[in-house]
Amino acid sequence: MDRDFLIDLFADFGPVTIRRMFSGYGISADGTNFALALRAGLYFRADETTIPLFEAEGSQPFSYQTSTKTVTVNSYWQLPARLFDDPEELSDWARAALASARLAALRKRPKARKPVKKAAKKAVKKPVAKKPTTKAKPAAKQKKKAPRKKSSS
User: Fold this and answer.
1) Mean pLDDT estimate for the chain
2) What per-residue string of b and e applies to 39-57 under the rule 16 or more CB within 10 Å gives b?
3) Which end of the chain has the smaller Cβ count within 10 Å, N or C?
4) Residue spans per domain, the chain
């Protein structure tokens, strides 16, 4: 599928933005990605309310193969082939896919956090353990403190 084909396909739905994504295109409306055109297939965003519609049409979720396993992406389902010839019904499915994508974005959005007030750091003086003195030091070994200079402010 090329860009011009996709623009024509969604003409009844309304304006869409088509961007290169992976090996195909991402299709969005109003900034929300709701469809993928990959590997000669068109996949619409789905959720618990629309997946039964895809299943009833015999559609499969998007999947791809890695070197060790097959990964299935249950949030995107292949559009039934009959809808390529029915632009009006395709538009209905596209609106449902857009609604699913918007709902998923709302669920994904992190909740607003309340601002946390920073606690003022208080200087905590740790008690210093002094060695018990049993003998007085001889006067010659005692350190003499230098006299403090008076500041002239």
Assistant:
1) 84
2) eebbbbbbbeebbeebeee
3) C
4) 3-107
